[in-house]
Automatic annotation (TrEMBL):
InterPro entries: Ribosomal_bL9 (IPR000244), Ribosomal_bL9/RNase_H1_N (IPR009027), Ribosomal_bL9_bac/chp (IPR020594), Ribosomal_bL9_C (IPR020069), Ribosomal_bL9_C_sf (IPR036791), Ribosomal_bL9_N (IPR020070), Ribosomal_bL9_N_sf (IPR036935)
The protein's role, per its UniProt record: Binds to the 23S rRNA.
Protein name per its UniProtKB record: Large ribosomal subunit protein bL9
UniProt-listed GO biological process terms: translation
The species this protein was found in: Enemella evansiae
GO cellular component: ribonucleoprotein complex; ribosome
Organism superkingdom: Bacteria
Molecular-function GO terms, alphabetical: rRNA binding; structural constituent of ribosome
Amino acid sequence: MKLILTAAVDNLGIAGDIVEVKDGYGRNFLLPRGFAIRWTRGAEKQIEGIKRARDAREVRNLDHAKELREQIEGLSVELPVNAGDNGKLFGAVTAASIATAIKKAGGPAVDKRAVEIAKPIKTVGSHTVGVKLHDAVTAHLPVEITAAS
């Protein structure tokens, strides 16, 4: 099955790549999750738009990634969430909510897939999360989880 990737997929490619995969993998995994679209001549023209969007949010090089790391590590991120009286959260903090909190704190727009949470955050307090900016650069960010009033 010939597909056009719309998002980066481990061991397969990045957004905009045309890939050939087995029918079951494409039909049962890539297409339902929105990681790919079926290849057609018309869809191939959409690749340019996908590549332009990827270039706009992509970390340009190692030096740029190091600049972003300094900027992110200098932030003070506070995330108010619903919690019980004992400090336990109703659910867990997601990578998407952390990426949004980084943006609100004045940091750069970070893709939620770049946020690395070592173990699920389910309590109020200070936690450290990683933000993978480049293969060789990861920013470590302290996030203060507070109970929403």
